Amino acid sequence: MVKIAIGQLCSTASMAHNLAQCQTLVKKAIAAGAKALFLPEATDYIASSSAESVSLVRSVQQSEFVLGLQREAKNAKFPINVGIHEPAQGGIKVKNTLIWIDEHGEIVQRYQKIHLFDVEIKDGPVLKESASVEAGTQILPPFETPVGRVGLAICFDLRFPEISIALKRQNAQLITFPSAFTVPTGQAHWEALLRARAIETQAYVVAAAQVGAHNEKRRSYGHSMVVDPWGQVVAKLGGEFKEPEIATADIDFDLIDKIRSEMPLLRRTDVYPEI
Ligand SMILES: O=C(O)CNC(=O)[C@H](CS)NC(=O)CCC(=O)C(=O)O
């Protein structure tokens, strides 16, 4: 059994301000006895346009935000999973990535978001992530951490169960979906999707989310949560932003093993392809 924390905040275009919010979250997570902190998608910044996003991006070696979090991780010997932006080749677009900073402060794993959020919902959000973001092309194999074997995915990837199924096949015990969901799609789908991914993978689903108004145009749904491998919501935050908040959950490895042995989900790869 090991405790994890999810952090919920409202990132703006100020990386210094976002780092300060994360430093608060690290303190709260450690005080609560957590052994790792999971932060949302795009925690380094949320811009108000594609052009602003491209103008803000820095390499990890030059990002005050990432360097600051690496210092936190190293000083406290405390792993941090955080969604950031990184420059793409050519300097025209950015990558939407998720990095694992280990207890030595080193970036040891990196996943690049595969599915980009291009939507045009009538009377709802219109967003074209692909205007500024380059899509990833690989599912990252799950990796060992002090809080279990972790598989990485980001936000809109949640709607594509293939990633979760592939991570489960490779024995992930925790699957992350750091997010910045829109309010209407969050109200309609967020919890149902997260619980479905947990139930079908029999893994913990760890979903740290952005919350509140980032700028005049963008607001996120919040409701960060952790779902256990039986589909129960075991940690949950709200949908209003007042201050950076954490919630904690115990990761019970025996529960994962018990559920997987009591109800084996053996795939019929003779009927449909293995993912
Ligand atoms: O823009 C950034 O910097 C950070 N990226 C995001 O906020 C992304 C792309 S706009 N948001 C989503 O994928 C929301 C998905 C969603 O809301 C759904 O699937 O319903």
List keywords for this structure.
binds N-(4-carboxy-4-oxobutanoyl)-L-cysteinylglycine, Nitrilase/N-carbamoyl-D-aminoacid amidohydrolase, 6 helices, hydrolase, alpha/beta, globular, 6-stranded mixed sheet, C-N_Hydrolase, hydrolase activity, acting on carbon-nitrogen (but not peptide) bonds, in linear amides
Strand segment tally? 17
Strand content: 25-35%
Shape: globular
> Which consecutive residue ranges, at least 5 long each, have pLDDT under 50?
none
Number of domains: 1
Report on the structure:
Helices cover 27% and strands 27% of the residues. The protein is of the alpha/beta class and 275 residues long. Strands 1, 2, 3, 4, 5, 8 and 17 form a seven-stranded mixed sheet that branches. It has a six-stranded mixed sheet with strand order 9-10-11-12-15-16, covered by helices on one side. Strands 6-7 form a two-stranded antiparallel sheet. Strand 4 and strand 5 (107-112) form a beta hairpin. The radius of gyration is 17 Å and the shape is globular. It starts with a strand and ends in a 13-residue tail after the last helix. The model has no long low-confidence stretch (mean pLDDT 97). The protein binds N-(4-carboxy-4-oxobutanoyl)-L-cysteinylglycine. The site of N-(4-carboxy-4-oxobutanoyl)-L-cysteinylglycine (KGT) has 15 residues, from loops.
